[in-house]
Amino acid sequence: MPIDFTSHLIRDSCQRYREGEKERRPLELDVENRWTEEQEMLRRFPVRFQEDSCIDARDDFKLLTRWKWPGLWSNYAKKNSQNRVRRVTQTAFDWGTEMPEGETETILRDQIGVLTCLDGVDAAMASVILTFWQPDEHTVMDERALLALKQSADDEYRWTEREEASRKHYPAYVEICKRLRDDLEGSFSLREIDQALWILGDQD
Questions:
Q1: Given CA atoms 180, 137, 79, 168 in this order, what sign does their dihedral have?
Q2: Residues sharing a CB contact under 8 Å with residue 70, sequence separation 6 or more, in sequence order
Q3: For a tag site, which of 75, 97, 120, 198 has the least CB within 10 Å?
Q4: How far apart are CA 49 and CA 42, in angstroms?
Q5: What gap in Å lies between CA 64 and CA 41, rounded to an integer?
Q6: Cα separation of 96 and 100, whole Å?
Q7: Whole-number Å distance between alpha carbons of 178 and 2
Q8: 96, pLDDT greater than 80
Q9: What is the rounded end-to-end Cα distance, in angstroms, of the chain?
């Protein structure tokens, strides 16, 4: 059934996301639940990452990978040294500072590409890193969110590519999410749009 992305639907979906995360145990931080942990990450990480122009603490990188998928750290991402995490993320965050205006799509693709040089970091995980660096400019590219957009009743928001995160299509995905946010008159943050799409894309 086509999805009409109204303010009411987005608000209800955000609430469902919030309630679901409150039922989950935190991953790393000493907080009550996964919802509180995410809010702490959104409060701490953007300031820290922007001030340092990189992810300076390996524990921060560990939490980000576990937030995306708990097994990602233990199976893959822990192979990265602190110095490697620092160097790669600094390169990605600094990317585009010398690029001319109007090169946003190229910069985003390049940033995703740089971040995937880290072990365990694919395009989806790279989008997580960008999101917690600049949550007002980036969002998480997730299969469930893409499935939700695939069902959009409005051509303006409909996803027409494959339902998988990719460097090639990340700029288009961010553009759609920002358009949806702006069309809802700023009632929601980019992160809230992402939360709602994740709920709406659940096929179970």
A1: positive
A2: 27
A3: 97
A4: 11
A5: 9
A6: 8
A7: 20
A8: no
A9: 15
Compute the distance between CA of residue 55 and CA of residue 9 in angstroms, rounded to an integer: 35
pTM of the model as a whole? 0.95
Residues 6+ positions from 190 with CB-CB distance below 8 Å:
135, 136, 137, 138, 139, 177, 178, 181
Query: Helices 104-115 and 82-94, interaxial angle, to 10°?
Result: 170
- Dihedral pair phi/psi, residue 3, rounded to 5°: -105, 125
Q: What is the mean pLDDT of the chain?
A: 94
Summarised one tens digit per residue, pLDDT across range 143-189 is 999 999 999 999 999 999 999 999 999 999 999 999 999 999 878 99
